[in-house]
Amino acid sequence: MAEKIELTRNDRLSVAWRSQFLQGSWNYERMQNVGWAYALIPAIKKLYKTKEDRSAALKRHLEFFNTHPYVASPIIGVTLALEEERANGAPIDDTAIQGVKIGMMGPLAGIGDPVFWFTVRPILGALGASLAASGNILGPILFFVLWNVIRMSFIWYTQEFGYKAGSAITQDLSGGLLKDITKGASILGMFILAVLVERWVSIKFAVELPAKQLAKGAYINFPNGNVTGGKLQQILGDQASGLSLTKMAPNTLQANLDSLIPGLMGLLLTFFAMWLLKKKVSPIVMIVGIFIFGILMRVLHIM
Amino acid sequence: MSIISIVLVVIIAFFAGMEGILDEFQIHQPLVSATLIGLVTGHLTAGIMLGGSLQMIALGWANIGAAVAPDIALASVASSIIMVKGNNFTPAGISVAVASAIPLAVAGLFLTMIVRTVAVGLTHGADAAAKEGNYRAVERLHLVGILLQGLRIAIPTVLLIAIPASAVQSALASMPDWLTGGMTIGGGMVVAVGYAMVINMMATREVWPFFAIGFALAAVSQLTLIALGAIGVALALIYLNLSKMGGNSGGGSNGGGSGDPVGEILDQY
Predict the structure, then answer these.
(1) Does pTM top 0.80 for this prediction?
(2) Which positions, given as ranges, span the membrane (chain A) (predicted)?
(3) Interface check A99 vs B, CB under 8 A
């Protein structure tokens, strides 16, 4: 009776490390397939000793694969568990392994993309960028460190989770915890996005509207002729308490818009961009269009 | 730039190129790569500021499925070099560098597509190696793939460095005011596109109210981003807990339409 071959913690760490290079030879035919095989090679070497077995294992892991690079980790974990069983003689065929891979990659990509690309990265990126805008080195450092701590712990713990749960993980995906995480992330994401739209989309109109006549008492009435010390003191006091120096108040379009709610035009522009995206207008076209629009507005002195 | 700076910049570009496809450590993100280039060329603060501005534009750019986002790696590396060569580290100089990043990001898109097509050949090489059970060859082919992605950014970087600084400087100096001013205005607005992409991805009927709360609170300028983040986390936790207490009646929240009211209005236009 042969001893049971097991993947040690070190084998699994080695696979997790290599899984970071999953997308390295991304290609239009089978996408992440070579990267996937590359990640599993330490396990294949451990589990299969003959040339035929290794060849078969490599071939089965060079099939089409594509998902979000981080959520590939739980799939790798499950695959490791299946391969280990198979190497020890369990009747797990190629289609079972392929089925688990294909079955998990779609739904998991559906979690990985919004959580990592559209919530965690924008939030950390915005945090870093707002510090960086004033030249603060903490901006890039915070972004880099926080991101990689989150990412590496995610990769390792979900791979371990997948390995322990084996094929049972597929059932768990419909369970509560993951749902809570995605929902919580999208709530936080929408909240922060609104903040970003308000704070960072900058549209400033340079248009001057006709000046407003101020009510009596809202401006300082300058006396004709000489000013005595007492009068001067009163005038300076009036100005300090916020009275206008002139009868007419300057009135800009921007000030009027800001009195509704600051950032309104940015919000409208964002909604317009969302609408264009839904109409399948390419983001690149929109970006170029916005720059042309900006130049036009400058030439016409509107902004 | 000194020889050492040039070598370091090319190395950074190489790593940014690899990361552009791997998307793991995020070295290719402008916040990191522009800062690093600023550091090795002796203009750290300007590099950080450039990185911050570019990061804002690129927040929503992501590789989804087989789709390729504009190439932020080339954009941030090349615009950092343009800024250093232009020798203008004022906010105006930085916004010109930001504006130059956009066409570069588009150009980089095509380079990525070329490498991803070339990598099809690597896959077939790996098939042949697998037939022999030769795992070393599979590993080698994969590393070649990563190498190609690194060169995708490193080679344009070398070319850009080879252009004399005076040519870059005079090209930047000859830009008229309406162009640089217009670019600055455009740069202020262009971030909306990135946010729109992200919002379209996440929006559901359930989470729109949180958008409204966020927008209104953001107008209070005393609240820092970290304070707002804390409010957002708290709101999310409160909501999740309350919806669980709601028990069975809470189950219906996922029903009805596409679950994205603003999206529906936009659709109907």
Answers:
(1) no
(2) 123-147, 257-277, 283-300
(3) no
